[in-house]
Amino acid sequence: MLTGKQKRFLRSEAHHLKPIFQVGKDGVNDNMINQIKDALEKRELLKVSVLQNCMEDKDSVAEQIAEGTNAEIAQIIGNSIVLYKESKENKQLQLP
């Protein structure tokens, strides 16, 4: 579980990132979760965009992705979800 200080740090790190995944009207599926899991292993921190035509609300989308990938939700802002998962091999971020 992330502390408030860690979440603030991750939000500042994620500020300049562009979303690399988009959740559309089909919602979250296994294939997407696997791709996000791989991307998290490489990057540790990434943004997912929830499109307007998505049938589910962004909070449940964030929950599903976080559960499926064992990642932490650092922030949900607008239609963007910021996810963090410590990498086993490509550790880049040092949490405060």
UniProtKB/TrEMBL annotation:
GO terms for molecular function: RNA binding. The keyword RNA-binding applies. The keyword Cytoplasm does not apply. InterPro entries: RNA-binding_CRM (IPR001890), RNA-binding_domain (IPR051925), RNA-binding_YhbY (IPR017924), YhbY-like_sf (IPR035920). Gene3D superfamilies: YhbY-like. It comes from the Bacteria. Residues 1-96 form the CRM domain. Keywords: RNA-binding. This is Ribosome assembly RNA-binding protein YhbY. It comes from Oceanobacillus piezotolerans. The lineage of its organism: Bacteria, Bacillati, Bacillota, Bacilli, Bacillales. The gene is yhbY.
